[in-house]
Design a protein that fits this description.
Helix content is 43%, strand content 7%. With 144 residues, it is mainly alpha-helical. The chain has one domain: Sufe protein. Chain: A (Alpha-Beta Complex).
Length: 144
């Protein structure tokens, strides 16, 4: 990618649900997850610290909230694993720009099921995904 090329935006959760529904093969879905991870906004290396690391993930995952004066969730996250970066993109599609007060009310289990991830993601990745959700909710609640 050239320095002037911006990555594609992460699709909305509605678009993700539709795209996943259209794909019959899980190999295609895994490739799509990897592609989604490449769409994440870059996280500065200086933000990847022990304090920002998400505990409970087998892979290394870092997450920080971005400053927001409008009461909405804006975060950056990154991982050293391609599939996990795709899972972060799913969280990005679900949470980014949502009101902080609604973070606890989002049916993340429902989205996880609708996307078909429960039957195709390893238990370690599932645990890591929900560790990221917990961290995101924790960071959001500290912004109230």
């Amino acid at each position: 990618m050239s320095a002037q090329t911006k990555p594609l935006p992460v699709p909305s959760i509605e678009e993700l649900l539709e795209t996943f529904d259209l794909m019959d093969d899980w190999e295609d879905r895994y490739r799509y997850l990897i592609d989604l991870g490449g769409r994440l906004p870059p996280m500065p290396e200086a933000c990847k610290t022990a304090e920002t690391k998400v505990e409970g993930c087998t892979s290394q995952v870092w997450m920080v909230m971005q400053d927001s004066d409008n009461g909405k969730i804006y975060f950056l996250a990154d991982s050293d694993a391609h599939i996990v970066r795709g899972l972060i993109a799913i969280l990005f599609a679900i949470y980014q720009g949502q009101p902080i007060e609604s973070a606890a009310d989002i049916d993340i289990e429902g989205y996880f099921e609708q996307l078909g991830l429960s039957g195709h993601i390893s238990p370690n990745r599932r645990n890591g995904f929900f560790a990221m959700v917990g961290r995101l909710k924790q960071l959001s609640s500290s912004r109230r």
